[in-house]
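At this stage, I needed to go through a protein sequence along with its fold in token form, as given directly below:
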Amino acid sequence: MRRSGFGVIAAPVLFIGVFQLMESMLSPALPLIQRDLAASPGELAWIFTSSLISSAIATPVVGRLADVYDKRVLLLILMAISSAGVLIAALASNVVVMIAGMAVEGVWLGMLPLTVGLFRDTLEPEQGATGNGLVIGVAALASALGLILAGPIASALGYRSLFYLALIGALVAAIWAWIAVPATPREASGRVDWAGGLLLGGGLALLMLGLTASSSWGWTAPATLALFAAAAVTLALWAFVELRTTDPLVDLRLLSGRSPAGVTAMGFVFGFASFGLVVALPLMLSLPAATGYGLGADTLWIGIYMFPLGIAGTLVAPLVGPMTRLLGRRTVLLLGGGLVSAGTAALAFWHSSPWEIVAGVTIMGLGGAIGLTAGLNVVAADVPADRAAGVSGVVFVAKSVGGTFGSQLGAMVLAAGAVAGVPSESSFVNTYLLSAVLGLLAVAVAFVIPAAVRQAQNGDAASVPAPKPLGTAGDTL
């Protein structure tokens, strides 16, 4: 890889890895935060909820901004804003200030669609595919690594060191970006649809708030139902406005094309299917070995068991481009969904020994990284250049929403099978099997996506015209 290509990829990948690492380390450090800030459990939950909501709002907006403005400038601005949020959280003297800081920090997730557009504009297609793979792989590795490092770092240096270390990493990434990332041409001549952004952000905020609050309020509580109803009305109004706007924030007609719609659906399904690992597995690992299915693992060992998830993703994601050239992109998409299903199914039937756990986690890590990376490469190839980042933003939002849905559903399944407050083995098995079924849905969705790139006259995949809407004659099978 040319040094310029390495620099373009390394700067945003480093930033994404640093912030994903910080967020994953905060979870084990919550008891320290609670004691220091005298926070209630509900207030602690809002540390993550505020970041989740702001990221859901920022991701599609940043994606569209990246379609319109210079991506290098936007990259540096996003680094500055999210770093400011981390600094606010690091200096917080009470939990309200920390919640506010994490809400500002949450906009960093907009870096994900921004990088898809940046790599497309500045790199050769093969380098861009490698970059997309590294983004997914490093994020997975950072998530797993954070669970291992959180305890030793927070114990030795205090939990605030987690924020300061992230700031150091962000500064290095920003300097690197300033030096290595070139300016990009303005792809779109239109404006940013701020009205659409406000409606979409409001609808997503209401939806995510309802999902996160449902665990404490209950799914049928009047307040929960009111939030879901308000979200539905707001999002319906957003769709109505977008379809009548000449330059929408999210082009819903384009999004209905087979490639964008299929990849978005796969993102949602992958997020939904991951609840088998995110919710059930850490809880099962922590249960006493006397139960017959727990392993009595503490936080450090839970992180070690989950670590292969990140390692597998990091190793395989950069190889998705070569795999696609060898096997074809539909085969790779099918492989990703199939491995996600196989990994969680393996955990359902074999979970009595550490090696069985590691095998299941590794298989799912491979599948998730392959499927999501291949999907992003499809977006980069099939969507017009002035919409690639925006559509990628929708894919990441769909994955986040799917993950939130899945987490709440997983908690319900485990609670339904609890005996004396402890989930039974059958409830864990049912959770893993449900994740496996959802992985098979990703396999089915892969057949919606065209098997080959529709080439432009000059043969450049990056200049492929927008996919036709569903059912339009002439779609490539």
User: Anything to note?
Assistant: Residues 455-477 have pLDDT under 50 and may be disordered. The CA atoms of residues 184 and 256 lie 28 Å apart. DSSP finds 19 helices and two strands in the chain.
